[in-house]
Design goal:
The complex is a heterotrimer of chains A (783), B (163) and C (280). Chain B has 163 residues and is α+β, with helices and mostly antiparallel strands. Chain B has helices at residues 26-33, 78-81, 89-96, 106-119, 125-131, 143-154, and strands at residues 5-11, 14-20, 52-55, 58-61, 73-76. In chain B, helix 3 crosses helix 6. Helices cover 31% and strands 27% of the residues of chain C. Chain C is built from eleven helices and 14 strands. In chain C, helix 9 (221-227) packs antiparallel against helix 10 and helix 10 packs antiparallel against helix 11. The chains are: A alpha+beta (783), B alpha+beta (163), C alpha+beta (280). Chains in contact: A-B, A-C, B-C.
Chain lengths: 783, 163, 280
Amino acid sequence: MSATAEPHVGRPLRRKEDPRLITGRARYVDDISLPGTLWAAFVRSPEAHASIVSIDTSAATARPGIHAVLTGEDMADLAGPLPMAWAPPGVEVNNPPHWPLARGSVKHVGDPVAVVLGEDRYAVVDAAEDVIVAYEPLPVAIDPEQAIAGAPYVHPELGTNQVHSWTLAGGDLEAGFAAADVTIQRRVINHRIAGAPIEPRGVLADYRAGALTLHTSTQVPHFVRLFVALLLGLSEEKVRVIAPEVGGGFGAKLQVYGEEIVACWASRALGRPVKWIETRSENMSVTHQGRDQIATVRMGATRDGQITAYHVKILADLGAYNMLLTPLIPSLGAFVMGGCYKIGAVTTEITGVFTNKCPTDAIRGAGRPEATHMIEVMMDQMARELGIDRLDLRRRNFIPKEDFPAAVATGVIYDSGDYVASLDKLLEHVDVDAFRAEQAQLREQGIYRGIGFSTYTEICGLAPSRITGPAGVGVGAGLWESAMVRVHNTGAVTVYTGTSPHGQGLETAFAQIVADRLGVDPSVVEVIHGDTGTGPEGRGTYGSRSLANGGEAVAKATDKVVAKAAKIVAAELEAAPEDIEVSGGKFSVKGSPEKGMTLAEVAGIAYIGAVPEGMEPGLEETTFNDPENFVFPFGAHACIVDVDTATGKVNVVRYVAVDDCGNPVNPLLIAGQVHGGIAYGIGQALYEHVVYDDDGQLVTGSFVNYALPTAAELPNFELDHTITPSPSNSMGVKGVGEAGTIAATPAVTNAVIDALAPLGVDYINMPLTPMRVWRTIQEAQAR
Amino acid sequence: MSGSVTVHLTVNGVEHELEVEPRRLLVHALRDDLGLTGTHVGCDTSNCGACTVHLNGDAVKSCTILAVQAEGSAVTTIEGLGGEGNLHPLQEAFWNDHGLQCGYCTPGMIMASAALLAENAHPSEAEVRHALDGNLCRCTGYHNIVKAVLSAAEAGAGAPVAS
Amino acid sequence: MITAEFDYQRVSSVADAVAALQAGGEDAKLLAGGHSLVPLMKLRLAAPSRLIDISGVPGLAGIERDGAQWRIGALTPHARLAASDVGLLNRVAATIADPQVRNRGTIGGSLAHGDPASDLPAAVLALDGSVVAHGPDGERTIAASAFFSDYMETALAPDEMLCEVRVPAMDGYGFGYEKFHRRAEDWAVVAVAAAVKVLDGACVDVRVALTNMASTPLRAGAVEAALRGQPATAEAVAAAAQRAAEGTDPPADLDADADYKCHLARVLCERALVAALAPA
């Protein structure tokens, strides 16, 4: 089948999603109302670690309009605690129970102790204040390095704060370091950040007549359905989970949360719909956070700039509990620990540690930003050590284009890449010599400007099941993706995807894919997602997987429809099915485009039943797509900053990104993902930091001091791209949702170090807050 | 304590009389009492701007205003700015320039932008960025939002907004 | 987040407001724009039993020149002040939070709230301004220097209402306001307000005040003394600015410890003075 003359794929089509969003007609969870709904408000621990001595719910229960106050004891019939779905072969993971409502003790500020259910949105908040909980404070473990060394323990019954220890090693590390002329070591910190989607979480659970419908702001409705069913003892088909409009996720909604379970349980117990809308203060303290790794990183190289060995030891602060994928997250970085370099020996050792903080889990990039930050900062450090230009050092170690698909030391096969091309393209936009002249001139005026680079690759498109699944990396689920394509009587098309987009624009991208293949306009292709009650089983949206896996599934399912349509058309036009092509909006015989049938005409035949003998009526196909490999987007970013050395404040002056995500489906969407990703990375590098004090109190409990950058802090971003198709799927696409975030933090950090080099600053860890930058300058000057 | 208070509001040109608790936030009166759910809540601290509406023509954060404080006022929400078939130029520009992704901050962002253009029909890029510093977006990195506001200004969106 | 319950009362005159304060007892609070109070109430850090809404009191929102001084009504929103000709205060008001907040927040509310991290208190202090308060015994004028008594505490009696702010017109002065914050919408980590009058190349009058360097806004007396009478040169300014942290007691917070705040005060003071000396 050939595509139409002017394919929709590749065009910057404006989004199908937008009309409802720009007019305020979209429906997020809090926009949905059901008659008779009870509101829920949670009573949460003000203590970082304490025993619950008693809970007095009487005053709260006595308030007007309050129907129930539930505690962990009330929910004793739950089939089990909240899920942790990582069981890596041969690795022991300490996994103490994590209940939706605390049982006996609380482990971090915000841990839910009770829930109040009542008629009025405001009154339940008042009632929650009236629940009297007596706590007996316990010693807290806050600093991860102290916590791994010994008591006090977050879970005393374990006798340790260690969650697990996991190693990925490839190549002969000892020989690699022995071959090195120079070895450097740095302590690299990827600090704790919040996902902070602007829509907080929310749930609306409605149990009636034996069936449960849950609206929840999630990235993974099918996982939520599975665990709601298991924990509540419901048969899975009786549970329908709907992710309506979802106001951003960034990994923070890739989770099965206790509030989801509690709302469902309470709805069943009370016979009323139950609604809970998270406040931002709750979001900052109980919605899972990310990063928080302290790494000891060692790199060895020969004098002429060949990296010979790379050894990373990570202490990952996982917080108080394991959530869905908590201990797995650092491992995701291990597979690309060597970045886009050909390094013979790469070893990553990860130790997870419990602390009395909010759990961490997947946040945009999930392990890969940390890994990329390490290698890209280390490349600059090594270049300085060797006296080699930092871009030259990168070029000397790039995996060459001809090596792809490239097996690397970490055991994975990078699907495709051309790192030289993306760096060359970047340098078409950034004239380094001219910059150096400008930089020198500005320094004479007291302006400290610096440039930083990051050449990155990452592993995404989460699948394939054979690697990610139970026998491979140990995720307790196959990570394929599904699609069902249904052609209606009129030739209009509905696509059901198992992905669950929340801003990515997949309704548009998938419609483009389908439209080309079926010879229709994207405007008549509706994409349905985020509803377990429609379409096939699915796996959700995260890990830059939805286009490479879900889009590929859509393409394959559509191709099945096309194949059937071709048989119908062939019979009508008295031609062979293999001679039918889609061209100019019609199915026609190759070479005679004047004679042909529209999809509407084909559908008419398919549904009237006058199909060729032996063929079933209908025009609808389903696919489960499980690829052979991941996809590995890559690129080169440059960041230019000015540092006010008197105050330490860093200002991003210019940011240029060249990304390669394979064949573009919709350039508008790609640019949007890259813009947002870069801002996310700049946010982490310069502004954002989840801070707990020594007592485990959350200091950054709101958007007042958890500082998301605003428009006023950021520049325009300059984007370009190269195109290196992926062999992992038929469309040659790669994910792009995380790339900007993954690339940005080292580019910013390297730029700040470059700016401050004349002041003797040669290294600094994020977050690059004004006080930290200023102090680093003071220390360097004092040396 | 408290009881209820009668509040008269003209919202998107329609007069309403509401009985509310004194503590009822304007945003909840709009969303829960009047069903205008296009105005969103994203924080507790007046930082995110998702709740931005126009109060007597001025952009305000409706999560930090009590409904009783709006007595006798004219309120314009995103639903009143323009809808299917009669999009406001800013709505059109956000669509054309991909100025939104998840859409949650978008109504507030558009209302804040409309207030800017009503005051300054042809702002510079820096003026746009500064005027939107009370509105947080986590998806777009602001690049296309700024672009959309500038292209709406170019298209003459700076006419006063009816309230 | 939801505020606790409270009684609500709308008043239409200053006398009614004062009477309502008296009747309402210690826990009654005046409500103007509500942009200092309502956020605290939503976080349940404040829970007044009664709010007396003065936003409808006529005649309290406006700016007028009265001889050698400006009279600014307590209900004047920051946006209006920012667009006015009131020296120093206009540029200070333009830095407050974001446009939406500037449309609602008022100068009276900002001063009465007494938050040392707010922008306007230090600016009014720098100008030797005053506030006019009405109470049961009538009207009194309180100098800014006597107004800010402690962290979020002022000289206002519980039954007094701040009605007007007066600042000298400061004709012939140059102004500077340097606010250090991480993001444009943030509170000041530290800020410095300066007003300088230069005659024949010499700084004949110097006023400098500091935001967020103690539990109240402070005058930087040592800087003023060091620069007064000195030539309006970069060297003299730099030397004087070195004394900006003298007598301060900055609280450490997430963004800055005390040392860093003192350093910032010196840096910002120099910049504010340079701005004040720059040709208009």
